[in-house]
Amino acid sequence: MALITTAIPKQNFELVRDKIGVILADELPNQATLNANTDLNVQVYSERLTPINASELSFVNISYNNSSFDENTTVQSVGDNTYFIDVYCRAKSDVVINGDTKSVLKRDRIVGVIRAILENPVYRTLGFVAPSLNRTTVTQIQTPDSFNSKDSSFVAIARITFVVNVPEKVSLINANIIQGMSTSIKLSETEKGFVYIDDF
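RESULT FIELD:
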């Protein structure tokens, strides 16, 4: 028989993943307008598994990778949650620039804007009320070796690694108070500190 009698809500690492998506979905179109660059107006996905197809030019996918906890107490664990923000770009060749070059330039511009958004002071807590999370950091940007790519459809990809330090809390249950009349255990003070003794 199940002993937990309350519904477990979304955990903080889930809420953070969803919030990253909301922020990028808001800010990327805004930057497309401010920069007069339609390449920045890309679709944002969460946990998308299907690869880019020929009809798509660009998209961003946010996925949760792992958590590493290093501060554990009775009521919470605090650690780093790692998220991947993958940028996929595809461009067509024109009379001036090849599609592969265009897709790489587009990818790098989108990656730079995403990094700047996530590290902007206004998103230091990702919109959560302080001190609900401790730290956010873009720790790495990776791009595959284009020269070894077997993709001939001018697809360029990059991965931004984003680390968020956030606590996961657990509610304590109320313990049954032992009534004095139903136990002979008492707390006694000694020169070494308090000790529980059986006083019968």
